[in-house]
């Protein structure tokens, strides 16, 4: 977990765990999420294994264990607990996990604005926007059209998620930056489609309650 580190308390070299095997002092935790959990960088991650590691580390890092320890160990416990929680929230979710790996490698996912329409969705988005304007103007006859659009875009999301899983496996085998670029593009397309689904659902709920 911790590479080529010296124990801050006794100087023991090559500490690879959170607790020094010689003096049992808690060490400063690594900040990288994969390193922290002791797993290789991967996108097609075993979430059950991640959960087991989370619980094991939670027991090891719990601040109550260090109330009578040194100030250095109390700080290591608090810092480690923070990284543990942030890392678990990030790595257990495939989308947040992919965004994290992209960021680590210098690929910011970027924001998908409503004007950045993926070319293959231009016609569907044009018709959707017209229907949204009509229902906002009080024309409830377009509700079936919007419900159908919501279902269609939800199916698109499932297809995009399947595509992502395939690219995740490819990245884990190759660790190619070209694959990361492709994943970034898929994520941006996914964000756009998810925004459409959210917008349609919001309007359907709002007009149903009106």
Number of helices: 7
* Count of strand segments: 0
Radius of gyration: 23 Å
Helix and strand succession?
HHHHHHH
CATH architecture of the largest domain: Orthogonal Bundle
In whole angstroms, the N-to-C terminal distance is 56 Å
CATH class value of the largest domain: Mainly Alpha
Which geometry do the CA atoms define?
elongated
User: Low-confidence stretches at least 5 residues in length (pLDDT < 50)?
Assistant: none
Give a short account of the largest sheet. none
Mean pLDDT over the full residue set:
90
Q: What's the CATH H-level homologous superfamily of the largest domain? A: DnaJ domain
CATH topology of the largest domain: Helix Hairpins
Helix content percent band: 55-70%
β-strand percent reads under 5%
Helix/strand structural class: mainly alpha
Instruction: Please tell me the total number of domains.
Output: 2
Summarize the entry for a quick read:
This protein has 210 residues and is an all-alpha fold. Helix content is 63%, strand content 0%. It has 7 helices and no strands.
Describe the protein in words:
With 210 residues, the protein is an all-alpha fold. It has 2 domains: 1-92, DnaJ domain (Helix Hairpins, Orthogonal Bundle); 119-209. 63% of the residues lie in helices and 0% in strands. The protein has helices at residues 33-37, 47-61, 71-91, 94-104, 122-136, 143-174, 177-209. The termini are far apart. The model has no long low-confidence stretch (mean pLDDT 90).
């Amino acid at each position: 977990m911790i590479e080529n580190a010296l124990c801050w308390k006794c100087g023991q070299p090559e500490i690879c765990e959170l607790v020094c095997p010689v003096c049992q002092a808690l060490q400063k935790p690594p900040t990288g999420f994969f390193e922290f959990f002791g797993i290789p960088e991967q996108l097609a991650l075993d979430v059950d294994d991640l959960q087991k590691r989370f619980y094991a580390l939670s027991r090891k890092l719990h601040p109550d264990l260090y109330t009578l320890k040194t100030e250095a160990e109390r700080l290591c416990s608090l810092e480690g607990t923070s990284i543990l929680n942030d890392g678990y929230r990030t790595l257990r979710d495939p989308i947040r996990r992919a965004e994290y790996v992209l960021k680590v490698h210098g690929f910011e996912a970027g924001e998908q604005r409503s004007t950045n329409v993926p070319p293959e969705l231009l016609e569907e988005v044009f018709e959707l926007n017209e229907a949204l304007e009509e229902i906002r103007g009080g024309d409830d006859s377009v509700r079936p059209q919007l419900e159908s659009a919501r279902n269609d875009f939800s199916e698109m999301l499932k297809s995009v998620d399947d595509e992502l899983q395939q690219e995740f496996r490819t990245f884990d085998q190759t660790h190619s930056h070209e694959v990361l670029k492709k994943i970034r593009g898929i994520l941006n397309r996914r964000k756009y489609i998810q925004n459409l689904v959210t917008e349609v659902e919001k309007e359907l709920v709002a007009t149903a309650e009106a």
